[in-house]
Amino acid sequence: MKHWTLAFRNLRRNRRRNMATLLAVALGYAGLVLFGGYIARIELFLRTTTVYLQHGGHVAVYAKDGLDKAMARPSRHSLDAEARASILAAASADARVAFATPYLRGMGLAGNGCRTVPFVATGVDPAVFGRILRHPEVLHVSAEFAQPLRGRALPDAQDVEGAVGLAAGLARLLNKPKVHDEVAGQPLLLVPDCGTPEAVEQIAADANIQLAGVTFDGSLSAIDGEIVNLFHTPSTDTEDQTVLTSLNTLQRLYETDAVTYVGVFLHRSGDATAVARDLAATLEANGVSVDAYPFTDSRVNPYYVGSMAFLEALLVFVGILVTTVVVLGVLNSVTLTVYERTREIGTFRALGWRRRQVAALFLREAVILSAAGLLVGLVLALAVATAVNAANIRFQPPGIPGDIPLVLWPLPEVYATVALVLLPLSSLVTWGVVRRRVRERTADLLTATTA
Description:
This protein has 451 residues and is of the alpha+beta class. The protein has 18 helices and twelve strands.
């Protein structure tokens, strides 16, 4: 204990330099903790929107080759009622699964009477969709995208025949800014005369659209849809084409009772890969040939996987850069300290101290200084994160329509990992500098002119 007390007292001898070193460690550590907190927030946002709001599920179970071929040949590569029941039964028997639900995906043309625009539609069970919108993770992380911009959420609008939700970009292309509740009670719009100036206003005043597509047997089909809400999708790539409706409505359009895939939602995201593997094996043993994909598979979620790969690479690069700067700062400070205290080192050696004991004294000083810097940096990072979160700063990340709040979530595993890297590195460079000096002859240390 007396050696630690002596090391602490030695730090008071050159306060300005030691304070500068402490601040360098603190600021570098705080920066890494805050940047890691930002990455953690973005990862959770992307994961939540991918799994819940884009209806991918933690695990997506398709018919064999259905991921690649279901859109082109839905009659061959979709899940019929028997396969769907088997998948739902296998999922419900797994304690890691919270719930599972079937989805139908399809494409076609959406029209307003004068113009048609391509769409990609998702049919979902409204009751399950309501459960998704109320999920704590969705409300905590992606509340901006959980609620519509206008109108009622699809689970709350099942009293409307042919209820559909349109992405804001698609609604803009179709000139459909209003929803059902805003035009309820008004006379129905007759077929507009597209060549007249009044047609634009007539189309905008109505909430009805037409959806046309090709049925599973290859014939043309069309239904009327009533816009009950407008919403932002979590990606600009889907903002101009997304239609969301009930599973029954979309099955009516394509004249089928089949579904494209079953989305499986888990209690823990970390179980996705294992659950996908186990579900596929269980179903294969029961004679149901499927492909099961965890949400971390780039084949089903290329945007999520690609974004996280980029952010993780950026975090590693910035981490190496900042760590190098901090360690070099510590190295510079220790080098000057050892240089100035050369005669002191010689005195310790003359008094009978072993080389290792002298080096350990300087090492203790570096550990105290670095640990204090880490503690100050952690307090600073948590204070900045609290202030930023309370300020309700909003920004628009690349590839996301609309803005989201800037939230920093410094995670214990992040600042623990950074501390476990910085502290040993600082100690290592200190040991290297001191060890070289204490190996010199005692007489040379005592007569050094650099003291």
